[in-house]
């Protein structure tokens, strides 16, 4: 079910983009509508998009790409994003380039990187957003889904009592149906300006122009609810049941995969664990990989169709949200995940 998205002059819209171009593809219309309504807009770009070898090889006619070439490419993509945002009406001083490693955000999340979290929490506290626009948890690009989890953790650190509407967008997805969404209708001039902003990302449209410019449509959709595949036989999912966390891994679990877990407590602390797959049936103690703090006891059941993990938390009701993702440990040439993260939120304590 979709509801119209309306913006007022009292809104403060903070847009998180993992790479230069995501701000235009996902929110080019929202940015224009927000500014037209008199709302404040700020854009945070997490990386410079410098780990982008195939377009760089094509455009620069080189095969070997070293650190200097990557830095130059990142600077070029930064300049493209700055120009695109000017086209959309965003002043330069309302744009922040954070400079974190491209394709490295999942690792920073799992390392509980203090610099990244302090930066993000500081931006949230300073800007005091009413609308936080983030990539969707299910986006297949690991930087996108990791940005969502990082934002959710940072919100808890910044001020868990402040009501912020989270609007999620999907750029890389196989989903054909979305849950509850807000839809923004663009005018013809807004569609044209969004198209011009996307075209400003010249390094990206040179190889993928048709796909990129296809985002300049009459509507932008933003997810406002969790996509939860609990009960589905086809998808990995997690759920709370009688005080225990159940994580279902569907289908064949391949060697070389791992399960990532990020757990958010009511106090705002985040705990992290990773498990090498496939798992053997049995019981083990799950620890936070940074502090060695006991998270809980993990019971593992395995059959040919699925792997079931049942966590009895040591922290009891203090765990609010669990994010989980199955991924390849070594990606090779393939950047994208089979699926993004999935979550289980504990409603009652």
Quick structural overview:
With 349 residues, this protein is of the alpha/beta class.
Task: Characterise this structure.
Strands 4-3-2-5-6 form a 5-stranded parallel beta sheet, sandwiched between helices. The model has no long low-confidence stretch (mean pLDDT 92). It is α/β, with parallel strands linked by helices. It has helices at residues 22-36, 53-60, 67-88, 105-110, 114-127, 142-158, 188-199, 202-213, and strands at 2-4, 12-17, 40-47, 95-100, 131-135, 165-169, 181-185, 219-223, 237-241, 244-250, 257-265, 270-276, 282-287, 294-302, 306-313, 319-328, 342-345. The longest helix is centred in the first third of the chain and has 22 residues, at 67-88. It folds into 2 domains: 2-223, Rossmann fold (3-Layer(aba) Sandwich); 237-345, Immunoglobulin-like (Sandwich), CATH 2.60.40.
Gyration radius, rounded: 20 Å
Number of domains: 2
Q: Give the topology string: H per helix, E per strand.
A: EEHEHHEHHEHEEHHEEEEEEEEEE
Helix content: 25-40%
CATH class of the largest domain: Alpha Beta
Q: Specify the number of helices.
A: 8
> At the third CATH level, what is the topology name of the largest domain?
Rossmann fold
Total E-strand runs: 17
Strand content: 25-35%
Mean pLDDT: 92
Order of strands in the sheet with most strands: 4-3-2-5-6
Q: In angstroms, what separates the terminal alpha carbons? A: 29 Å
Poorly predicted parts = none
CATH homologous superfamily classification of the largest domain: LmbE-like
